[in-house]
Every structure is written in structure tokens, then in C-alpha cells.
Hints:
GO terms for molecular function: protein-containing complex binding. There is one protein chain. This protein is α/β, with parallel strands linked by helices. The chain is built from 8 helices and 9 strands. It has helices at residues 16-27, 58-62, 85-105, 124-140, 164-171, 177-182, 188-200, 212-216, and strands spanning 8-11, 32-36, 49-52, 70-73, 110-114, 144-148, 151-153, 185-187, 207-211. A 7-stranded parallel beta sheet has the order 3-2-1-4-5-6-9, with helices on both faces. Helix 3 links the parallel strand 4 (70-73) and strand 5 (110-114). Helix 1 (16-27) crosses helix 7 (188-200). The longest helix has 21 residues, at 85-105.
Amino acid sequence: MAGTSGAVVVTGGTGYLGTRLVEQLLKRGHRVRLLVRRLATGRVAPGAETVIGNALDSESIATVLQPGDTLVHLVGTPHPNPTKAAEFEAVDLASIRAAVSAASRLSVAHLVYVSVAQPAPVMRAYVAARAAGEAAIARSGVRATILRPWYVIGPGHRWPIMLAPLYTLAACVPRWRPTAGRLGLVTLEQMTQALLRAVEEPPATTLAIVEVPEIRLSR
Length: 219
């Protein structure tokens, strides 16, 4: 548990990434506290403390934080696609702004945020919302780690595997290679391990950004 003295507070802890992360945090001996909606309490991993609240409201987030905690923010629109631009503003961006506000006021030790790889030629509204979230973090001065995956492959999220031959081709063309690397696919296991590392190894500087190639190295 190097790098953490307080609890690890997770918003979005019952979702696709959060469920796996919370399980691993508990196995590693962390004190884990989740802010969840009332309807999601049945999906909380045994051993985690549960607080019912609203991740879109900074005051609600503040009720689960204490000075020195680590806040992992995983709230987002499920199965994002270009038709959900309004949700990206109302949920993804609103929630990270609320989280940053609460983290700053409560003197959180470290904020971990899952953003998205950027720039990208598609999903512009989604990328814009996540980039605005990153900007809010940078302005706050809160020590933070930002992870930038593109697509996380796992149960119920496997269709991009069909694109693997295109990624292989793009990696062979020098002018496409940087984009192929930045927008590469990562596995759920790699993403979980990258999040664990982010929690346990806070950056020495105010802000650290973890891109797809570094996430892929996580085991």
C-alpha cells in the first residue's frame, strides 16, 4: 500500500472498471469507501464501506472524503457513443468538476481520473468532455494522476478485437504509428493494474498523465 495513508474513495465503484478495481484494492489491504446510488448498493464488494450519495454533487462527494484520502473518479456515461453528447456534458464533465471541487476543499492527497486518449478523429464530444475534466484538474492544483485509455477490452466490451488487423497495419506505417499507439486497445486487467499502480504510487509532481503504451505495460 505504498503511497497511501488515508482511505481510497471510489466514485463509480460498482461499474465496469470500478468493480474490478475495488476487489483488488480490498485484496491488497486498502481501506475502501464508495459513494454509490441507493439502487447500486447491492453491487458493492464485501468489505468496502458504502455511503449513499450523488456523484454529480460536490457536497455529496465531500461527505465521503477526509484529508489525506485518495479519490478515484470512475463516473461516466455507460457504453459511450456519438449520440450521447448531452450525457457527456451532464454526467462525465459535471461529475469530474464536482469531484475536483470536493477534492480541493477537503485536501485530498491524490486524485486519480480516467480520461480518454487524445487527440482522436472520432468521439469528439466525448474527448472534449474528458479534456475539459482534465483542465479542471490542472487548474485546481490537486495532485493527480490522469489515465488516458482509448478502449478497454473485457466482458461485454470485446467488439474492437475485430480491429486488431487494422492496428497491426497502422503500426507498420510510420505516419500512422503514433496514432495507432495512442489509440491502442488495452485489456481490463491492464487497466485495473494501471489504476492500482496510480493509487499506490502517487506522482512526485502535481500532475502525471499515463497514456496507452504505459497502461499496456501494467501487469
